[in-house]
Amino acid sequence: MIKPLMRGAVPDITAAIGKTPIVRLNHVVEDLDSEIYVKVEYMNPAGSMKDRVGLNIIRDAEERGMLQPGGTIIEATSGNTGAGLAMVAAPRGYKCIFVMPDKMSQEKIDNLRAYGAKVVICPTAVEPSDPRSYYSVARRLVEETPGAFYANQYHNPANPEAHYLSTAPEIWEQTGGEFDAFVAGMGTGGTLSGCGRFFKEQRDDIKIVGVDPIGSLYYEYVKTGRLTKAFSYYVEGIGEDVLPSTMNLSILDDVVQVDDRECFQMTRDLVRREGIFCGGSCGAAVIGAIKYARGLKKPQRILVLLPDSAQKYLSKIFNDDWMRSNGFLDDDTTGTVAHLLKRQPTRVISIDDATSVRQAVSILKEHGISQLPVLDSAQRHCGIVSEIDLLNYLVQNEGGLDMPVRELVSSDYATVSPHTRLQLLKNIFNDAKVVLVTENDRLLAVLTKIDLIDYLASDSAV
């Protein structure tokens, strides 16, 4: 016999998901004409917006017969999706195994284990196809575990559907649709794709804006259509080194790039100046929204989704020693890319994508350089062509000197802004041979390791 509920109670913890507040920001946006509001998703019961995703993925799997009583849920997660799945799994009696990259905070690992989940840690700095990557390990565990269900948030339509059915309608009801832009971090794409689809159905003029950390591949792919090599960064829960099928990039109106330092400093400001106890990807989304607002011609109302809480980052973002050791506090004296460019102004030598191989070789030789940025017909950079690209082509294609270089353009570079800290630039050069400095889609400079070495060795370095 099912006993009636006490007045005001819910039948289990999953019924408490949602109905999170929207809060106006005041102090961190004092210099803006636009208004910025935040949807505080860490007030979900397991601490993040992924509670909605966990509930919808499990409910969908049960309806499809993919998850049977006593089954095991397996997922590759940065922590929040795992917590959402584990919370929903607990009252239903499912077991959980979560696979995480080793850059995630200890708090996230401990949080998942508190739910009784098994956690497997994998190296971050490997290619997605590497058998040691957390994607590959998760798939292997699914094959090896009887009764396993792979949640697969990167390719499961139930991920964006969760936000289409839950987050977006809730926002619409709360606001009456009285906002001009929706801003969120770019991770699996569930939030942007699900909310973006719903909002566009209500009002096509609402702008959908993604925020992507330097090191992830989204920003460059959206701007140029090229998949560059992803490299390591510190902010957790956003950015990708693969393209998930759950990300609908066609729904985006704009994408803003941010770096670790500004993400973490904004996160600390949100807690200390606004009293909003949020995590690193929240700081990323807010600083991205501020950058977007500064480029607007007239004031707008901007709504930002804050995914999770500060609780899982106390040993990192809110630890001064960790912040200082990684160059993220104000006492970092290495300066920015803008300082380097001021000290070593450079003229950008570029070519358009119709330039012939013969002409490209001549330009490299004339200027004594080893790579050339390539611009498209709209004068936006679309990649680089280097000595090795030309050499490989000429060895295999004797006499093909008149072919346009657009066929040889490579993506072996990283993109930064003038505001990128040189501490981060040093880390980027561990993975990238060439760095393109851009601002507002305009190419400002091409940097190599020797440029950074020369600047740091100079007497005028900051």
Describe the structure.
This protein has 462 residues and is an alpha/beta fold. It has three domains: 18-47 and 158-238 and 246-325, Rossmann fold (3-Layer(aba) Sandwich), CATH 3.40.50; 50-150, Rossmann fold (3-Layer(aba) Sandwich), CATH 3.40.50; 337-457, CBS-domain. The chain is built from 15 helices and 16 strands. The strands form four sheets. It has a six-stranded mixed beta sheet with strand order 1-2-10-7-8-9, with helices on both faces. It has a four-stranded parallel beta sheet with strand order 5-4-3-6, with helices on both faces. Strands 11-12-13 form a three-stranded mixed beta sheet. Strand 12 (371-375) and strand 13 (381-386) form a beta hairpin. Helix 1 (50-64) packs across helix 5 (158-175), helix 5 packs across helix 6 (190-202) and helix 8 crosses helix 9. It is globular. The model has no long low-confidence stretch (mean pLDDT 91).
Can you count the helices?
Answer: 15
Helix content: 25-40%
Please state the overall shape, judged from the principal axes of the Cα atoms: globular
Number of strands: 16
In what order do the strands lie side by side in the largest sheet? 1-2-10-7-8-9
Sketch the major β-sheet. Answer: 6 strands, mixed
Stretches with pLDDT under 50, minimum 5 residues: none
Question: What is the CATH C level class of the largest domain, in words?
Answer: Alpha Beta
Amount of beta strand: 15-25%
Instruction: Give the second-level CATH assignment, the architecture of the largest domain.
Output: 3-Layer(aba) Sandwich
CATH topology of the largest domain: Rossmann fold
* End-to-end separation: 73 Å
Number of separate domains: 3
**What structural class should be given to the helix and strand makeup?**
alpha/beta
How would you state the average pLDDT, rounded?
Answer: 91
